[in-house]
Amino acid sequence: MARKSVSAEAYGRFNIQKEYKPPVHAKSEEEKQALREKMKANLMFSILNPKDTQSIIGAFEPKKFKAGDVIIRQGDDGDNFYLVESGELDCSKRFNEDDDKETYLKTYYPGESFGELALLYNAPRAATIVCKSQECMLWSLERATFNAIIKVGV
Question: What gap in Å lies between CA 91 and CA 72, rounded to an integer?
Answer without folding.
Answer: 9
